[in-house]
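Q: Please design a sequence for this.
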């Protein structure tokens, strides 16, 4: 016979943890700190850090440094406040979620950057540059050719690398013709940003949207025609101002190093693997990219093991080719400043969202202004503030929008930065590469024309992709 007292204790033992968990869930809700000292201080710290980021060119301070410190201070204050109120685990869980999201994106980008660096080391980009220089194109032909190549290369390689490559071509053939260089650089920035907007791999913002499973891989290509419109309209207008001259053809020859074509093939295979893992297996794309890094590692192993044997049989080529291939050197040459900047931004914006500011912004913009106006404003804002924090803020708000609206904000955040030279990584990089010839004010002169392309691309998207707005 069961003892009533024992049974009662057993039942209470089973029920108590459930009651504790339920009670914990009720009590442990995020606190609204928007009107507190913690909230105001966090906003001030983030603004100061971002002003330093925007002044990178003038103060010569890497953009990752201020945002990394800002992220630590913001979450440190949040952690202290929640510890004082007996809820340290809530802040910890929120921070871990932000950190996991960053880690997935960081590893994805690291693989892509390693492949781009490997192709650069194998002289893939220099060979393309030599081919363009030796063809003897006129300024107007080069204006269009570099723009079109930037548009179609940036969806696979990142828009920053693409812009730097095309700018090198422009500088090599442009010589002292500042007018041509300025116009060509503006065109490259617009084209690279537009090309990156319709591909999940073309920009960090599109990658974030894809990894969040908000838009599936193939749906991004609905933005292809709007992206073309965004590029073609300003390019057509600016082309009339390009000098109708023909520079002297240069005698430059670069041959791709051994394994270059195989590395290009492996990169395409890596992208295919990432797509397959995500769309067919339901796994994060980063797993497919890291698998692809394994492909490159084995290729690097093969090139290293056969290096000296190959050169003994074929003779030594250029000086650089006598150095055996080293995959870890390619990893080390990744854009670590960009990756750490991304870390700081994700954690800063995540902290401000945890405090409650993003809910306020979402209520103001997406409820007050409406989704279309809000998404257009996001693009305009990304011309002043980097599109990474802007898009991450939108994703953190997670407003209830149709696929058409998510495509719209992906488009505007991707191409809005083209309106100012400081609005995208491509523009900032080219100001350094073509210093004195491509400037902020030189770009600003053509901002109305670029804004016309921006407005036309939005109208085109809302017209041809009307079915996605249902």
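A: Design:
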């Amino acid at each position: 016979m069961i003892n009533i007292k024992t049974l009662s204790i057993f039942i209470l033992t089973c029920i108590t943890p459930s009651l504790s968990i339920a009670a914990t869930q009720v009590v442990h809700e995020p606190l609204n700190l928007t009107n507190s000292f913690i909230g105001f201080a966090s906003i001030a710290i983030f603004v100061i850090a971002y002003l330093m980021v925007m002044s990178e060119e003038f103060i010569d301070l890497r953009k990752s440094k201020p945002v990394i410190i800002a992220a630590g201070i913001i979450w440190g204050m949040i952690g202290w406040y929640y510890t004082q109120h007996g809820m340290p685990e809530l802040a910890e869980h929120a921070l871990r979620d932000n950190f996991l999201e960053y880690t997935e994106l960081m590893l994805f980008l690291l693989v892509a950057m390693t492949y781009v660096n490997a192709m650069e080391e194998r002289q893939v980009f220099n060979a393309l540059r030599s081919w363009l220089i030796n063809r003897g194109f006129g300024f107007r032909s080069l204006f269009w050719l570099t723009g079109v190549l930037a548009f179609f290369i940036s969806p696979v390689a990142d828009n920053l690398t693409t812009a730097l490559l095309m700018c090198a071509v422009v500088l090599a053939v442009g010589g002292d013709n500042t007018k041509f260089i300025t116009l060509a650089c503006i065109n490259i920035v617009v084209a690279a940003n537009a090309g990156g907007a319709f591909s999940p791999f073309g920009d960090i913002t599109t990658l974030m949207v894809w990894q969040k499973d908000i838009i599936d891989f193939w749906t991004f290509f609905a933005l292809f025609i709007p992206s073309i419109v965004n590029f073609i309209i300003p390019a057509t207008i600016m082309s009339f101002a390009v000098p109708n001259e023909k520079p002297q053809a240069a005698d430059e020859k670069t041959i791709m190093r051994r394994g270059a074509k195989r590395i290009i093939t492996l990169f395409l295979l890596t992208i295919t693997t990432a797509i397959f893992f995500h769309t067919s297996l339901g796994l994060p794309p980063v797993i497919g990219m890291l698998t692809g890094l394994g492909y490159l590692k084995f290729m690097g192993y093969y090139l290293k093991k056969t290096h000296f044997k190959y050169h003994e049989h074929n003779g030594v080529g250029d000086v650089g080719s006598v150095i055996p291939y080293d995959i870890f050197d390619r990893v080390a040459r990744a854009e670590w400043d960009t990756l750490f900047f991304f870390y700081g931004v994700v954690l800063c914006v995540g902290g401000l969202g945890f405090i409650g500011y993003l809910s306020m912004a979402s209520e103001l913009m997406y409820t007050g202004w409406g989704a279309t106006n809000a998404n257009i404003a996001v693009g305009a804002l990304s011309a002043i503030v980097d599109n990474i924090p802007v898009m991450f803020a939108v994703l953190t708000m997670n407003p209830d929008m149709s696929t058409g609206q998510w495509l719209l904000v992906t488009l505007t955040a991707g191409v809005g930065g083209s309106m100012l030279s400081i609005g995208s990584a491509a523009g900032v990089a080219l100001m350094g590469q073509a210093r004195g010839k491509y400037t902020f004010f030189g770009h600003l002169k053509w901002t109305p024309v670029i804004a016309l392309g921006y407005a036309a691309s939005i109208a085109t998207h809302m017209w041809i992709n009307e079915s996605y707005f249902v």
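Q: Thanks. Anything notable?
A: The chain is about 75% helix and 0% strand. The chain has one domain: 101-469.
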